[in-house]
Write a structure and sequence with these properties.
The complex is a heterotrimer of chains A (about 90), B (about 900) and C (about 280). Chain A is mainly α. Chain A has three helices and no strands. Chain A folds into two domains: about 55 residues; about 25 residues. By secondary structure, chain B is an all-alpha fold. Chain B has three domains: about 500 residues, Up-down Bundle (Cytochrome C Oxidase, Chain A); about 100 residues, no CATH class; about 160 residues, Up-down Bundle (Four Helix Bundle (Hemerythrin (Met), subunit A)). Classes of the chains: A mainly alpha (about 90), B mainly alpha (about 900), C alpha+beta (about 280). Chains B and C meet through helix 4, helix 8, helix 9, helix 10 and helix 11 of B and helix 2, helix 3, strand 6 and strand 8 of C.
Chain lengths: ~90, ~900, ~280
């Protein structure tokens, strides 16, 4: 049973990470390296998403099968996007 | 939401609650069939309805074959032919094959796994009614001028208003919406079946022990869950194109940034798993029938199941074999060739397993076996010709020809033939009577001959282009490497043979309809198992089974089926029952079996869908906005009746008026109140009626007390410790992930096509002046905060703090409201001040649609929250033992909406 | 030798450089024959085997008294196999069947792998000619509702020429090509998704608006042929076809140069003919 204190800490962390994403782009931290910026910023989103899913949605406490179910959906999306995107490169 | 189980009965039951929700009316009454939520009833409804759609699609097939009797127009015009070809495909694939299989599945799966019904009975009924009404909407589309003439594959940009004849515009949009309603039906069904099969199996029945038909259904619904979400995304984007864009160069599928190719990717990512979705239940039937009528357990059962699972997964990575002739690159084509030809391997294994089972068997050539054996042979032929299509160089010639048509009819229609075998096999179980065996055999002979007469000539004249009826002048069929033509009249004679075969094949079904109908009144009564060597649980109960399915709680704990509180199943014998129709398992609480709301809600969906087809762009949003105050008022009124009148109900009823007034004011500013309403066309009123009644029905259904007790002892691996409703919510979120993923993927695809860094420039060329990050960042803060507060609401609810729960829910609601307000300000600036509109180029369309879909999810969340607040106020979530489940389930949905935004923010703001 | 259009065989046989050794018709014919032969063989064997076994292991007993199926009591000399029992949990077949299953699976895997490799090798050749063959006649094809427009490499467009060649009765917007040359087509559409195919020469490619695809063919006989549309594209789809006129190279040169706006240098690809 997660405590309210934990929820609050996570909330603050999420806010900080979001601000970081905006800041990275605004100050142009990666300059012309579009791919690097993309990877880092989206990577931060993945961290945030996993945190919300793990703690707020209690995935850490649920049977592992539920995580796999959600992952299956994510993998499907990645397959479609990567396949379609690659096909026109 | 009261479909979940409660320990110790926490829902307060008013007396008289059970006059509707209690026992089922008798089968002879019409009302019974309208309000039932029992899986056996719904199974019968599905099967009969699907057979009607078979007849409808079959008559269209007859018309196609008549048109093809000779080259050139015969009984149909160009537009007529194109519509018929489209509707035939849609009806057979969507409205006949799968629903028929699901009729069988509805009836049999709970029996086979030892459950007394599906996990969510009302949702099950809703799946059926949505299915029926979606088909009705498709039928109506013909009468709105003309229906969809694009082929069932709906290729872009032919599927856009720019290329659809004006007479067919209304009907086309109706057909598209009908498909979307069908997807809703199927998604609900997937959630239901998955939850049931993982959580409601009888004790001792592991997942691997499930009978093969149910396993095939399990894999089918897994595929359905993910595949149909991709189709829904494509249909939503297409509907957007129809309502808001659709001219050449605009919208999604008319876009110059790969719009046409985008459609093929989305459609076939769905479309290929779809054909296995259609076939798998037939495979399950084959396995059951071969086993029973060979009198031998299936050979290699474990490998059979693994092969089926492998196909299910692999089906999602072969889709570009439908696109070999497009501009996709060689490496990806090669990958798809390997995965496509490779997918024949697990099918090989399954077919061989079936064949080897007959060896050393005690085979009886009865009607079910004949149909299944015939289906296997036809499937072998169809499957082999599919491998041809996987070899890219061959597909370079086969594309768009009758080779494809012949191949897929061999595989799909052989699936239908197997399902017919299933009809005969389970008919005695469902009706308690045996059909006429001689007529069954006659049907088989006529069907098998007719089938091959119809489809084999298509291989001979394979060079006929698809959807052509002017086929003379095409290349006469020759023996390869020679100049010897097979007939000097070219293709005509072969098409004529096919037409005769069509009538023979289709006509043979009349024998079946007659047989099955007349046998109902015969004296050929059957007992639990008229067939020898049946194994699965449905053959251990009476024919038809009792209302509660079993004469006691089924259990496999001893290694074979037994019924607790009374009867034991002895070796090789029949289940000893009490005699007569056994009563349902005794529950602590009374299980509910009837509800009007699935039917009513689905009817409102039909009205809404029909209304949207003719809704003018300028009026589009208003029916939805106006129904929001109706929703709010309904919570007040219905809630007061259900929970007793409290200040919150008064507040809701009161608040609905100013909300209505606010919307009316904005409407007046746009259109003028008397004038604008007078100018609105009839579709506006239809949509308003549909959405309005739909909202009220949702509230009423939410407040309806509907008990579904959880089984006391059941196998739940791998979802132990998760309630049925929670699992259902997660399964639903799985499909929502794909829905959003397809929207995001479409954006990424178009952006790659345009050159990733060109995007902002494209937006500016189309009117964008500035797109600051700040509104997106603020919205991120707001949603994160609301995720925080909703999890607080759960924490407070678990502690029984009414004030804390209400406060946290209210703050969450406020956060969502601020989110929408902030977005509204942003959009007004973009849309009105900068003139960057919905169809101002691909950057605009993708931005508005993707963030718009997200905003729609937020609105839905807010509506649910209003409901929760009203219920929380009356203390619904923390009575004794209540674990605040409903708030937790809502929280899951809300966090999901938040997570999606966490990706939209970088993609559409930071990295724009 | 990718990129030159030369295959090992052509080098050995010393065919003219402007030609490929295997046209699309040859490639298709070879692959199709191989598949049909193998498919018919496998299909016949498997289907016969199935029907044979279903018949051989037919139950000799009739329906039991007053029932609709045989009695479940095993007859004398019954085989030692697991027979289904009502209410059982199927825990496996026991003996029999598994080894056969693996053998047939293994055999199919080998066949399938062979087919993949063979198809892939032919695919590479076809794609190579499509993209890299240098001495080809290049024509742009644009599909529209409901016909085909052509544009030759030198700029000659099908709206601007007419097809008045003795002995050939073809429409004025036909595609005219010389026999024995490789013709590379770049295909697109100016409205909806079509598909351009010349069945006699096995050329086919999707015509996608806003996008380009490629195919090629080498016509080895003269005459008038058809280019059909193979993707549903609207009400005129069923009758959407154009003419393809194949003439001797000399006739082609004469016709081409007699049209306005053409130059001799456009026909350089034909100079590569050695003989």
């Amino acid at each position: 049973m997660t405590s309210i204190r934990t929820y609050t800490i996570i909330f603050v962390a999420l806010m900080i990470l979001s601000t970081t994403q905006a800041a990275i782009e605004e100050i142009g931290l990666f300059g012309d390296q579009v791919l690097l910026a993309l990877v880092v910023i989206l990577g931060l989103s993945v961290v945030k998403a996993v945190t919300v899913a793990g703690w707020y949605m209690h995935l850490r406490e649920e049977p592992r099968a539920i995580t796999y179910l959600a992952l299956a959906g994510v993998i499907g999306v990645v397959a479609l996007t990567a396949g379609a995107g690659y096909s026109i490169l | 939401m009261t479909d979940n189980a409660h320990n110790g009965g926490t829902e307060s039951h008013e007396t008289g609650d059970h006059d509707d929700g209690g026992h089922l009316p008798p089968k002879s009454s019409v009302k019974r069939w309208l309000v039932t939520t029992n899986h056996k009833d719904i199974g019968i409804l599905y099967m009969i309805t699907a057979l009607f759609f078979l007849i409808f699609g079959g008559i269209l097939a007859f018309m196609i074959r008549m048109q093809l009797w000779q080259s050139g127009p015969f009984i149909l015009t160009d537009l007529g032919y194109n519509q018929i070809v489209t509707a035939h495909g849609l009806l057979m694939v969507f409205w006949f094959l799968s629903p028929f299989a699901f009729g069988l599945a509805n009836y049999l799966v709970p029996l086979q796994i030892g459950a007394d019904d599906l996990a969510f009975p009302r949702l099950n009924a809703m799946s059926y009614w949505l299915y029926l009404f979606s088909g009705v909407l498709l039928g109506i589309s013909f009468f709105q001028g003309s229906s969809l003439p694009t082929g069932w594959t709906l290729y872009a940009p032919l599927n856009l208003p720019a290329f659809i004849p004006p007479v067919a515009e209304l009907g086309s949009l109706s057909a598209i919406i009908a498909l979307a309603l069908f997807v809703a039906s199927v998604t609900i069904g997937s959630v239901n079946f998955l939850t049931t099969m993982y959580r409601m199996r009888a004790e001792g029945l592991r997942m691997r022990d499930i009978p093969l038909f149910s396993i095939s259904i399990l894999l089918t619904v897994w595929m359905m869950l993910f595949a149909f979400a991709a189709l829904l995304a494509a249909l939503m984007l297409l509907s957007f194109d129809h309502v808001f864009a659709g001219e050449v160069g605009t919208g999604y599928f008319g876009s110059e940034e790969g719009g046409s190719l985008l459609w093929t990717h989305l459609f076939w990512f769905f479309g290929h798993p779809e054909v296995y979705i259609v076939f798998f239940p037939a495979l399950g039937v084959m396995a059951e029938v071969v086993q029973t009528f060979s009198g031998r357990r299936l050979v290699g059962r474990k490998w059979f199941i693994i092969a089926m699972a492998l196909v299910a997964i692999q089906s999602f990575i072969v889709w570009m074999h439908h696109m070999f002739l497009t501009s996709i690159n060689l490496p990806i084509k090669t990958v798809m060739m390997v995965t496509t030809i490779g997918i024949s391997l697990p099918f090989d294994l399954m077919v061989f397993a079936l064949i080897y089972t007959m060896i050393k068997g005690r085979v009886r050539w009865k009607t079910p076996f004949l149909f299944v054996l015939g289906a296997i042979l036809l499937f072998i032929l169809g499957g082999i010709t599919g491998v041809f299509l996987g070899a890219i160089v061959l597909d370079y010639s086969f594309r768009g020809t009758y080779w494809v048509v012949a191949h897929f009819h061999y595989v799909m229609a052989s699936g239908a033939v197997a399902l017919v075998g299933g009809i005969y096999y389970w008919y005695p179980k469902i009706t308690g009577k045996m059909y006429n065996e001689f007529l069954g055999k006659v049907h088989f002979v006529a069907a098998f001959i007719g089938f091959n007469m119809l489809y084999f000539p298509m291989f001979i004249v394979w060079d006929t282009p698809r959807r052509w009826f002017h086929y003379s002048g095409t290349v006469a069929p020759k023996i390869p490497f020679t100049d010897i033509t097979l007939f000097t009249t070219g293709f005509t004679i072969w098409h004529q043979v096919a037409t005769v075969g069509a009538f023979l094949f289709g006509g043979s079904f009349l024998i079946m309809f007659y047989n099955l109908f007349v046998s109902l009144y015969s004296d050929r009564v059957v007992d639990e198992s008229p067939w020898a060597y049946t194994g699965s649980a449905e053959w251990a109960v009476s024919s038809p089974p009792p209302e509660g399915n079993f004469p006691g709680t089924p259990s496999f704990a001893t290694g074979k089926l037994s019924f607790l509180d009374g009867t034991e199943l002895t070796d090789g014998g029949e289940a000893k029952t009490d005699g007569g129709v056994a009563d349902a398992v005794a529950h602590e609480q009374h299980a509910d079996h009837t509800s009007w709301w699935p039917l009513v809600l689905s009817l409102t969906a039909l009205l809404t869908g029909l209304g949207i087809s003719g809704l003018e762009t300028a009026y589009f949003v208003w029916p939805f906005l106006f129904s929001i105050p109706l929703f709010v008022a309904a919570i007040g009124v219905v809630g007061a009746r259900r929970d007793g009148f409290t200040p919150i109900h008064g507040a809701f009823m009161g608040a609905s008026m100013p909300i209505l007034g606010a919307f009316a004011l904005v409407f007046h500013l746009h259109h003028g109140v008397p004038g604008g309403l007078a100018e609105a066309n009839e579709y506006f009123w239809l949509t308003l009626a549909g959405v309005g009644t739909g909202m009220v029905t949702l509230v009423t259904m939410g407040y309806e007390s509907f008990e579904v007790p959880t089984p006391r002892r059941s196998e739940q691996w791998p979802f132990e410790g998760v309630t049925n409703t929670k699992l259902g919510m997660w399964v639903f979120l799985g499909s929502d992930i794909i829905l959003f993923g397809a929207f995001i993927g479409s954006y990424i695809f178009m952006r790659i096509n345009a050159g990733w860094t060109n995007w902002h420039h494209i937006a500016e060329t189309n009117g964008l002046v500035s797109h600051p990050i700040l509104p997106g960042l603020i919205n991120t803060y707001l949603l994160l905060a609301s995720s925080f507060t909703v999890v607080l609401a759960l924490a407070y609810a678990k502690r029984g703090s009414r004030r804390g729960t209400l406060g946290a829910l209210a703050v969450t609601f406020a956060g969502a409201t601020l989110f929408l307000l902030n977005k509204g300000i942003e959009w007004v600036d973009l849309y009105i001040h900068q003139g960057w509109q919905f169809d101002s180029g691909p950057a605009a369309s993708t931005f508005y649609l993707t963030t718009g879909l997200h905003a729609a999810h937020v609105v839905v969340g807010m509506l649910i929250m209003l409901f929760l607040i009203a219920r929380a106020y009356t203390g619904a979530y923390w009575s004794d033992g209540e674990q605040a489940h409903t708030i937790e389930y809502f929280g899951l949905y809300w966090h999901f909406v938040d997570i999606v935004w966490l990706f939209l923010f970088p993609l559409f703001y930071v990295l724009f | 030798m990718l990129g030159t259009g030369n295959t090992l065989l052509s080098a050995l046989r010393r065919v003219p450089v402007a030609q490929v050794d295997q046209t699309q018709v040859d490639v298709f014919g070879n692959l199709f024959t191989a598949f049909v032969a193998l498919g018919t063989l496998v299909g016949t064997i498997v289907i016969s085997y199935t029907v044979y076994n279903a018949y051989k292991y037919r139950s000799k007993s009739g329906d039991a008294e007053g029932r609709y199926d045989i009695d479940e009591t095993s007859p004398e000399g019954d085989y030692d196999v697991a027979r289904p029992q009502r209410g059982e949990i199927p825990t496996g077949q026991g003996k029999g069947g598994g080894k056969k299953l693996f053998m047939s699976f293994g055999l199919s895997a080998i066949l399938v792998l062979g087919l993949i490799i063979y198809s892939y090798s032919l695919l590479l050749g076809v794609e190579d000619t499509s993209q890299n063959f240098e001495d080809a006649l290049e024509v742009n094809v644009t599909g529209y509702q409901f016909g085909w427009d052509y544009e030759y490499a030198g700029g000659l467009e099908s709206g601007d020429y007419d097809v008045n060649i003795d002995g050939y009765d073809a429409a004025d917007d036909a595609l005219v090509v010389p026999k024995g040359e490789v013709i590379q087509l770049q295909v697109t559409s100016r409205d909806v998704h079509h598909n351009y195919g010349i069945p006699e020469f096995r050329a086919k490619s999707d015509a996608i608006p806003g996008d380009y695809t490629n195919t090629w063919f080498q016509p080895d006989k003269t005459g008038v042929y058809r280019a059909n549309c193979y993707e549903l594209c609207g009400q005129g789809h069923s009758n959407m076809h154009g003419d393809v006129v194949v003439v001797e190279p000399g006739v082609f040169e004469e016709w081409y140069l007699s049209q306005e706006g053409t130059a001799e240098s456009d026909l350089d690809f034909m100079e590569a003919d050695s003989e």
